[in-house]
Write the structure tokens for this entry.
Amino acid sequence: MQRLKSEIRVQAWVRQCAAQGLIATVARKGEGESGAVILKVNRFAAGCEVFTGVSAPDGGQAWMRACGPKPVSERDADAYLARQAKYDPDVWVLEIEDPKAQFTLDGPILDV
């Protein structure tokens, strides 16, 4: 099964968020073909969740909470993203403003 290009996946997320009335901003453009995609979901007073794409045991797409099981401050989320960008210059970062917790992922969240 062929995976979608990273740039197309990010564009799809932006459109999906717009359809839900959410603001999504490409905070960092990565490599268009196969750069990793990280989602920063900002729930404002409730904190931020950061999700990285991973492979599920069945080979499908899944997500992992990159900063732990509980939301973190925006400062901590941004520090994580800065470290990842240093480690992987091809990474994409999509920031989603979701104060009402309406955003949903397109795959399961794995507890790793």
